[in-house]
Specification:
The chain has about 270 residues and is mainly alpha-helical. It is about 85% helix and about 0% strand.
């Protein structure tokens, strides 16, 4: 009887344990499935997040720090020369803008004042008015009136005014060739940095004997940074160059109008 009872007890324990183990295995499998699903969701959220163009932890850096980092990574030698092109080009451009701003003259008002002096036969007063007025228009008037005082003919005065107008136009364009030079040099230096970066990438591949993104990335990054730097400098200087050229064209147009008005006024009041 005891043997039968023990046999039944062992059989019952085996049945219970057999039923418990699948249930626990199912619970463990369900828990593992939940963990995998949570991990997959987290990875999906990270993949959907916007990509920061700079390294991790640098998104809070100010702009000048990020530019400094790119400047160093692009190679101090080439990036320094590109930066010098920008500095010298902007210096000349700002000087030209200030000079052209001072050369601006109200041609109509100035011509009326000179004509009033000539009506009174006051050549010296007209010359003094030209000396006290800045700009190429006043200089052209001064040269014409000075020759009137010397008693030269209208034909000689007209030739002198035209010749001196060409001299004044050359002075207005002073320094523009340097800006053009920097506009051309900056992208050339950038492209040279591109070639050097590619050479560095191929050297790294040759040394390693294998091609991998890590080997090529450094040289390609240098190439791209120098190219972008040169193009940005050229674009900035080109904008200033075109603005200055437009200002020069406007002043030259005023000079031509003033020259015609001066000759007409001299013909009218110096007979």
């Amino acid at each position: 009887m005891k043997k039968i009872f023990m046999f039944l007890a062992v059989a019952g324990l085996l049945t219970v344990s057999a039923n418990f183990q699948p249930a626990s295995a199912q619970d463990e499998e369900a828990a593992a499935t939940e963990e995998v699903a949570a991990a997959a969701e987290e990875v999906a959220e990270e993949a959907a997040a916007p990509v920061d163009p700079f390294a991790a932890g640098e998104s809070d850096q100010p702009l000048h720090q990020q530019l400094k980092k790119l400047f160093i990574e692009g190679g101090a030698g080439f990036m320094a020369t590109i930066l010098l092109c920008l500095i010298f080009g902007l210096a000349i451009a700002i000087e030209r803008i200030i000079t052209l701003g001072m050369a601006k003259t109200n041609v109509a008002a100035f011509g009326e004042k000179v004509e009033a002096k000539l009506k009174e036969k006051d050549i010296d007063g007209a010359l003094e008015l030209c000396r006290d007025t800045k700009g190429p228009v006043a200089s052209i008037y001064y040269q014409g009136l000075l020759r009137v005082k010397e008693g030269q003919s209208i034909e000689n005065i007209e030739k002198s005014v035209i010749s001196y107008g060409s001299v004044q136009m050359g002075q207005l364009e002073n320094g523009m060739s340097w800006i053009s030079l920097f506009i051309g040099i900056a992208p050339m230096l950038g492209f040279m940095g591109t070639v050097i970066g590619l050479i560095q990438a191929f050297d790294a591949i040759e040394v390693a004997g294998d091609i991998s993104p890590a080997l090529v990335a450094g040289g390609m990054k240098v190439a791209l940074i120098t190219t972008v730097g040169g193009l940005v400098v050229a674009i900035i200087l080109q904008i200033f160059f075109n603005y200055i050229v437009s200002r020069i064209d406007a002043i030259v147009s005023e000079m031509e109008t003033a020259s015609i008005d001066l000759v007409d006024t001299l013909v009218k009041y110096t007979k």
